[in-house]
Here is the input.
Amino acid sequence: MDDKRRMKEFRRRGVKGARLLKEDVAPAEVARRVGVSRQSVMRWEHAIETGGLECVVRLGARGRPRRLSDAMFFSSFPLSTSPAAIQVLVPKHLRAQTASYFLLISNIIGMGIGTTLVALTTDRYFHDARAVDLSVAIVIVVAASACLLLLGSGRRHYRASLAPQAEGRPEYAFRQP
Here is the structure.
């Protein structure tokens, strides 16, 4: 549901809820009948007391959006490709160990170094605690550029590792003990 339709639906619910409140229906029952939270009904009740039904119509929807943003949706794509590549490329007897190293290193870099770089950029470059958003943007651009360079340089090796499987040779090009 797009934002305009969502707002129109919320206004319709608000008017219906305001009418129920004027009929002295309990807020919890209004919330159940209209399909909103009790907090929304309490806001409507306060708006009716202060400015009437027109204030309920002007309130609008609050809270977080009901759907994932496009950025959140697409940023989760790489999370599944790395473990899948590990399972395909690594011999069976090393998969668990390789996966654990991957998780260790990615968490150390992401949670340890990433947050530290944001703090250092904020303190050393901007000298202003309110510039955290700019520091996050700079760290993300630098890290994404480094990732693109590493992925670009690793593509040739990844293809070479998959070649034995494509030719029908044994499962892995590595020697197993």
Summary: The radius of gyration is 27 Å. Residues 132-166 form the longest helix (35 residues).
